[in-house]
């Protein structure tokens, strides 16, 4: 837990922006620290890029940048489309359960 994320001002801002629709440490269902989210980036992209970039670990910041660019260049369109489709399914499921928690799909 990062103290800044739990500062009173942060919680008040969240409550104003998302009244009773954000997950707090004191809520009945605390958000697990490593839970999967609903975004394609969380579900698919970051893990895929990390696997590709660190297959042969870069040794300099420049190598890291080049490795990331190369990994993005070789992503297969069908893989990206599958990730987007998966996101749609998750969003529909979220709507079905009226934004409550649901089992990871």
TrEMBL record:
This entry's Gene Ontology molecular function terms read: nucleic acid binding
Q: Which domain of life does the UniProt lineage start with?
A: Eukaryota
Q: What is this protein called?
A: Tc1-like transposase DDE domain-containing protein
Q: Which Gene3D superfamilies match?
A: Ribonuclease H-like superfamily/Ribonuclease H
């Amino acid at each position: 837990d990062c103290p800044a994320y739990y500062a009173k001002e942060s919680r008040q801002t969240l409550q104003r922006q998302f009244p009773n629709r954000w997950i707090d440490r004191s809520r009945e269902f605390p958000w697990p620290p490593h839970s999967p989210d609903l975004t394609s980036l969380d579900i698919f992209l970051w893990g895929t890029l990390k696997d590709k970039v660190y297959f042969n670990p870069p040794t300099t910041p420049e190598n890291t940048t080049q490795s990331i660019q190369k990994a993005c260049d070789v992503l297969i369109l069908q893989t990206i489309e599958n990730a987007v489709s998966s996101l749609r399914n998750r969003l529909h499921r979220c709507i079905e359960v009226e934004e409550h928690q649901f089992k990871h799909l």
